[in-house]
Design a protein that fits this description.
Blueprint: E1 22-23, H1 31-35, H2 37-47, E2 50-53, E3 58-61, H3 64-72, E4 77-78, H4 91-97, H5 115-125, H6 129-133, H7 136-153, E5 157-158, H8 159-164, H9 166-176, H10 183-191, H11 193-198, H12 203-229, H13 235-245, H14 252-265, H15 268-281, H16 285-293, H17 298-308, E6 314-319, E7 323-325, E8 328-330, E9 335-339, H18 340-343, H19 379-396, E10 401-402, E11 422-424
Parallel strand pairs: 1-2, 3-9
Antiparallel strand pairs: 2-3, 4-6, 5-11, 6-9, 7-8, 10-11
Helix pairs in contact: 4-12, 7-19, 9-14, 10-12, 12-14, 15-17, 15-19, 17-19
Bound molecules: protoporphyrin IX containing FE.
Protoporphyrin IX containing FE binds near residues 71, 120, 315, 377 and 382.
Length: about 425
């Protein structure tokens, strides 16, 4: 692993481990899987809980037990590959990212211990309950403003553009400390990171994304430098102070890189989660009615969405040494794909796992935020923001309903939410 680079490139696809069942045709990028992964994930798990996906070059783990064991053993299963492109990059994109000043370092999700632990201690401070709660007035106000605009334009509306895309981005940008005037630019820069690290963009798309990433990284560096001289009440200022007080734990370049990483982590999956929440609630009119009448049901409803229709349905690891999973020998250097889509609907963990139940007692037994040392730092943030958005939508538009039954999904191996979603309401 070269110098903790933020994005590494995998140049070779290792052969399947000896004795591991192989699947020749399945890939999370297949169109049937993108449209509805759950029945296929179930079948795959029933056939072979551990198998090698030839089209992906990864060993796939399907059960909650195995996925949790992997998350709990960060020494054998390193997270170094979680931000890497799934497939090798085209030369044009490689050339752009070879710019000498494109040097973000792995900091949180993709940094091994013990460095990760040191950095996380300082980053975690910014994610306190108290701090997250300070976002409430902003989220409520912006939710109401976006709803006002949507209502004024009239039913039906495209919900992703009108609400789900702008709000989570703006919220995390305020949290980090980016100025509001840069929102549009930032959202555009962040947009295609999903394709870069988790999709299969063609050569021309890769070049366009690489250019955006370079501009975005340069912006993050300039922003951090400016913050150093003009602190505010925001995460970036706290991180700079943490670096000044503990330069051996968290370097200046690591602060810049956290800002670069968080601005993506902090909104993409939340945009998808609020859409997935509406996808689950709105067609079930009785359930939506319950939510509108009793907002205290929203917290568990969001947990059930995270289990049943999560905005993140997989994650990755790379073995650092030879190991064995369910009797299959897995050599060092094997890329591992953790399939949350099957684990979150496992029949021995969840009663009637393919039904959506906002009253489910163990809804929060899902694995959508990971586990162990890298457990999602933004889990509280994501839950709180999604709960608040749902509450405001239910209060303001009880007649909200979906205007479509099927949806298109952006081709990638991990994040899941509709590209667009038409909604309507009674005027
Ligand atoms: C529904 C929304 C979200 C989902 C499903 C999600 C999911 C995840 C998952 C699966 C991981 C990897 C966990 C592991 O390796 O064990 C992760 C890590 C992380 N997430 Fe989230 N996330 C969400 C929202 C957020 C938000 C809103 C933020 C920040 C504002 C955030 C920040 C992070 C960070 C910093 C890490 C790396 C933590 C570490 O390595 O120490 N996430 N997230």
């Amino acid at each position: 692993m070269a110098d903790n680079k933020y994005h590494q490139e995998r140049l070779e696809t290792p052969p399947p481990p000896a004795g591991c069942p192989a699947h020749a045709t399945w890939s999370p990028l297949n169109s049937d899987y993108l449209a509805d992964p759950y029945p296929i994930a179930d079948e795959l798990a029933a056939e072979h809980p551990v198998f090698y996906a030839e089209k992906l070059g990864y060993v796939v783990l399907t059960s909650m037990e195995d996925i949790e064991a992997v998350f709990n053993d960060h020494e054998t299963f390193a997270s170094v590959n979680v931000q890497d492109p799934v497939f090798p990059l085209a030369p044009g994109a490689q050339q752009i990212l070879a710019a000498p000043d494109f040097n973000p370092v792995a900091v949180m999700s993709n940094r091994p211990e013990p460095d990760h632990g040191k950095i996380r201690v300082h980053t975690r401070q910014g994610f306190s309950n108290k701090r997250i709660k300070t976002l409430e007035p902003y989220i409520r106000q912006r939710s109401n403003e976006l709803i006002d605009e949507m209502l004024a334009a009239g039913s039906p509306a495209e919900f992703v553009d009108a609400f789900a895309f702008p709000l989570p981005g703006e919220t995390v940008f305020r949290f980090i400390g980016f100025p509001q005037s840069d929102d549009e630019m930032l959202k555009n820069w962040c947009g295609d990171r999903k394709a870069f690290s988790w999709g299969k963009p063609d050569a021309a798309q890769q070049v366009a994304i690489a250019e955006q990433m370079l501009s975005y990284w340069r912006y993050c560096r300039d922003f951090t430098a400016a913050k150093r001289d003009a602190r505010g009440d925001d995460l970036a200022s706290e991180l700079i102070t943490a670096h000044e007080q503990n330069p051996d734990d968290i370097s200046y370049q690591e602060v810049e890189s956290i800002i670069y990483g968080l601005s993506f982590a902090g909104h993409e999956a939340v945009t998808a989660l609020i859409c997935n929440t509406l996808q689950c609630l709105l067609p079930r009119r009785d359930v939506w009615g319950e939510i509108c009448n009793d907002p205290t049901l929203i917290a568990n409803a969001v947990e059930e969405v995270l289990r049943y229709n999560s905005s993140q349905i997989s994650w990755r690891r790379l073995t650092t040494r030879d190991t064995t999973i369910r009797g299959t020998e897995i050599p060092a250097g094997t890329a591992v794909f953790l399939n949350f889509a099957s684990a979150n609907r496992q029949a021995d963990l969840f009663d009637d796992p393919h039904s959506f139940d906002i009253h489910r007692q163990n809804a929060n037994r899902h694995i959508s935020f990971g586990k162990g040392v890298h457990f999602c730092l933004g889990a509280r943030f994501a839950r709180y923001e999604t709960q608040l958005m749902t509450e405001v939508l239910a209060q303001r538009i009880p007649t909200l309903h979906l205007e479509q039954e099927t949806f298109d999904y952006f081709p990638n191996i991990t994040f899941r939410g509709p590209i667009s979603m038409m909604v309507g309401w009674d005027s």
